[in-house]
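Minutes, project check-in

Agenda point 3 was the complex the collaborators sent over. CS summarized: two entities, 843 residues total, and the question is how they sit relative to each other. Sequences were read into the notes so everyone works from the same version.
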Amino acid sequence: MAVPSISFLILVFVAAILFNLSSAPRWRQFVLLVTNVYFLSTFVHAPAELIPYVGFLGLGFALVHMVRRGVPTIAYAASIAVLLFSFFWLKKYTFLPSAIFIGSPYLLVGMSYVFFRVMHLLIDARYPEDAYRLTIVDYVNYTLNFTSVTSGPIQRYEEYFRMTTSEAWGLGPLDIGVGLERILIGLCKIMVLAVFVGIVQQRLAYHLTPDSGMLDRVGTVMGLTALYPIYLYFNFSGYTDFVIGAGRFFRIKLPENFDRPFTATSFIDYWNRWHMSLSNWLKSYVYTPLVTSLARHVRNPDLLPYMSAVGLFATFFLIGAWHGRTANFLFFGLLNGAGVALNQGYRIVMMKRLGRKGYAALGNSGWYSFICRGLTFTWVAFTLLWFWSDWTELGRFAAMLGPVAIAAGWGSLVIVAAIALHVLMRIRDRSLAPEWRDRPVLNSRYVRTAWMSVMLLCVLVVQGVMDAGPPGIVYKDF
Amino acid sequence: MLKRDFLLLPLIAIGTMLILIVPAEWAFRTAYPAVLADACIAKTPLHPYAHGLANCTSYLKASEGPWAANRYNACGYRTPEGCGLKPVGSLRVAVVGSSTGAGYAVRYEDTMSARAARALSKRCGRPVEFQNLGVPGEQSRKLARRSTEALSLVPDALLVVISPFDFELTADLRADDPAERTAKKSPVRRMKAAISSSRMLYMGSYFLLRDDGSYLPIYLRSGSNPDFMRVPMPPRWQDALHAFDVAMAKVARQAREHGVPVTLLFVPQRAEAAMASSHMHQAGFDPQQLPRMLRAIAARNGVAFADMLPEIPPQTPSATIFYPVNGHINAEGHALASKALLRRMTAPGKFMDKCLAPAPGLVGR
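CS then shared the predicted structure for the full assembly.
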């Protein structure tokens, strides 16, 4: 069952009606459990394909409870290692010998996101005094939450537990409206905006020939580079909007994954705004422990600030490498790690030169932010070349485009991106300016309802035109 | 939220959609009219299968193309010439096939039949007429029956026009697919069908997908539609080709008994043409697969084979030779199809022997 899809929406609405028939916690847990298991079962052709998945979940549950009861540090470390190995083995990472992999087909949908949830439970199990109740039903409903199992967002267990017990959201008419609005925004981003951007990028690649003129080639460099991050943003943030809206009907507040990432003025800031649930998870469970450990071992106090750069490199290399098992994604990880590490190094140097206040003043100046936005977007777009393409295809493009067009294209992209982002930010600010009864007019429920109708119509028209089914969510493959 | 919002908000939603849909749909229907069903094709007691009505005239138009008049002669064939006795000294070619062969939504003078007739008349130095028995919606399993009717015209050549649509039209192919049977009944599919009859959607497809860079990736992702190009060819298509092989064997045998040479003309589907003429190659798809297999079927049955694909110049945008959404070849496409046909028919063989020989005596029904 694809997310998003009409069948998924039907499942959400039917399950939500059943879920809200009673406020009894056991009833709601039961409905969620049945829905979660049913959703997962739609991805398999035979029950046997579920065995490795169920085995991984069972292993995780057993390890979490074992650690919660108290184990020596070596056993704790071993349990983390076992879980990691199981994940790498099931995902068939290429650094493991292929002879040990399972030959028959088995379910892997959402495995990465399930892994993050289980690992977070396992790591936090070391501190049982902070632990919330974790029955098998709680565990299954949390790890397999059908609204977010395929592509996140990654929610902490404590938040999920509070949402499903004491701090459940209300579900009045306004909440239903907001939930529907969020679903429509998601559908519009995935099925309209991402589709259009994808079409334009495909057209550019299709029409590129060795005979294209210099202006065409510069335009193609800019387009091929810039359009994919925009496509990915609409595709993935649209999915997030969709599932957050769906989660609302179950009174669950899923964490946000995006905060206008292209308005970031540095690569570090970008990763604070893009796939936030993943970067927050890695910061908590990789970056912070790593930097803390490194700081303990560094004797020279002048080197201490640079440990954060080392920690950032390792963390964001892992983020990049997590996306795929091939050399392309390892290189993508390398670029990400190098990007944040260099960014951090730059910050450290600038703070030494200008002082904290001077550096903050520089960051607040309009022209500096303007250029940094363009540079950040261009770097993001550059790293993503290895996300949607490979060395062979990139080599083919490079040969057809030539070094001059490539350099000119990327240089122009910095300026064009900076201008476009500046304009979009101004439009957004201006559009929220008109007010009625002390609230922005565009935020009024009447305007938003009309806008929802427009979005629904766009979705129906574009999907009617495409007639090829909804596009797949890129992040479902990770 | 106020009590009036429970009424007001749904009204705003419905009102917004109506304000957008109604004028847009009206504007597109006015600017891009279409008549897709041929009123002159029907089943009659004389012809219990779809057949042209005698002495009938209809007008067809694809939304993205011009008006085309369909004039049917006394036998119900889309042909300006009569279908009685062949005029002395003339040559007659009978054409069977579906909408492509019939010249769907293309003015008769622009069709491959008319173009080939003019060219052959010049080449042979005497009138050559094409009696067009092509019928929109014709299924390839009716080939033998239609060919029997065609051979009763005492033609000097029989032309069978085939395209990937014709295999898709084979009832067995679709009916045997359980997924297709279920999908046809599904309310989602019915809703999609209702929505896709919108002219706004139709022209949206036209503007969005007329460029091959947009069209090809979407088409290749559209489920089982591109299966005839998929490598290896799925079993359902192999079965359909086997059924066609059996049908062609019957046609070839009948034609041999009448001493009539047969030519099988392949007209590609739009994506096939786009891939064949462009530098874009998609792994797992081969646009030459179907014509290659049809060529083998033709050879096995002693039938000449003409292929339109090689006639398409490199880098030709497919929207210049096809109606992009409708999918049929347009006038320029028919020009290329007639080129392929002429290349084959003017090669040494029975038909050219007749073409270059002195005019025979009075023959016909």
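Noted in discussion: The longest strand of chain B covers residues 91-97.
Follow-up: revisit at the next meeting once the mutant set is ready.
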